[in-house]
Amino acid sequence: xxxxxxxxxPDRGQDAVTIHLTDKTGFESFAKGLKASQRAALQAQKFxxxxxxxxxxxxxxxWFAVGGVADPQNLSSWCLAxxxxxxxxxxxxxxxxxxxxxxxxxxxxxxTAQYVFDRYxxxxxxxxxxxxxxxxxxxxxxxxxxxxxxxxxxxxxxxxAEDMGPEALEAQVEVLAKKHGAALETxxxxxxxxxxxxxxxxxxxxARRHAPRLMHLSxxxxxxxxxxxxxxxxxxxxxxxxxxxxxxxxLMKKDMGGAAHAIALAxxxxxxxxxxxxxxxxxxxxxxxxGESFRPGDILKSRKGLTVxxxxxxxxxxxxxxxxxxxxxxxxxxxxxxxxxxxxxxxxALGPELPALMARKDATAEALIAxxxxxxxxxxxxxxxxxxxxxxxSDIADTNNAATNGFxxxxxxxxxxxxxxxxxxxxxxxxxxAWRPQAKPGRPKGGDAYGxxxxxxMLKDRYSE
Length: 465
Prior knowledge:
The protein is an alpha/beta fold. The chain has helices at 27-32, 36-44, 81-86, 106-112, 140-158, 166-180, 192-195, 197-203, 246-249, 257-271, 317-329, 344-350, 362-374, 409-418, 452-462; strands at 8-10, 17-22, 54-59, 62-68, 90-94, 130-134, 183-188, 213-219, 226-231, 233-237, 277-287, 299-301, 307-309, 335-340, 356-359, 380-381, 399-400, 427-431, 435-436, 446-447. Strands 7, 8, 9, 10, 11, 14, 15, 16 and 18 form a nine-stranded mixed β-sheet that branches. Strand 15, helix 13 (362-374) and strand 16 (380-381) form a beta-alpha-beta unit. The chain is elongated and about 80 Å long.
């Protein structure tokens, strides 16, 4: 993506093409103010003000653009996204009759609409940049950082496992640490057996160059509230010995999507200088198959000391998160947030668009939902019912990692994670899909961030000076 200040710039009166916005209800009134030839041009393009419609209208020796939106006076993140996708390269300015000329939240979609994943295939016809001017220059840096965080998630998730294995994920955290002067400790390979035995067990079957590891980045001042961000980094998930079918394995490069969210969120926190003591924990593994694979029926030790019977080797993400959440809890955090592409059950319940949210405290869940609604990234809360804890019972270990029935799979996975978070700690868990199966304006098909913006804006509100 050609992100950043290049795509949104301060309005200093430079030459720019005007963008007008209208809705279907107001289109007739809008059209009355145009010349007959301009109305004919809109008619020829079948423009009637419906959402995401676009049109180009001649205006003497020049032209202007028109977009259809839900409400020209209350813009969403995606109101200008379709225009940013289809307009010619150039510089644009929003008309004063639309939201007072202030793009506001639409700055986000203007940037993310121009995202291109070109690591392996270059566009046949590069279209260049479409620049949007704003007379609110103070918003540019924040809007740029947010869009770049979303596009970082996309890049990491879109990259195949061969090039985004545990080693590559570690390199990404190293870049983040160096950029912000953060401390980074990484435990790799067999050294994990002592401190992170479940991370080791899940990842030990992988080839040496994809050896498991646990990255722990720390940043900020001692004495500030401790914030822990944890992300599931299963860089490829074969299912282990409980192997997935071919169709189920096809998208498993995205199973490190939780880690991608956590890394992007940590970057936002540090770039903004949020007043927290940040701990980012990313367990990174490949759930591979070899003679070293952990087995159904095995009993694993955990960092917390709980023993875990393996009911399903394809429920591996919760295992590596268990050790990471235990380590996060040792910092006595004010809040733990974790992100994981954890269960198919969450997708059955909510589809790809809505990340499932589970939280111990109602106030935290409500703050995350409110932030998501305000920034077009709404999570949906699922419960952590005590009545379902018995589904994880084991006859020979402290807990099983999977239920034997098919009930409430997302919540039961959340209940497993809850066992590894210290009692009394404020904790919220995002079960996110990290993949967009169908393109929408500003949101191309492929890897995508769900819940990232909700979490970021909640944290800004919670830890603002």
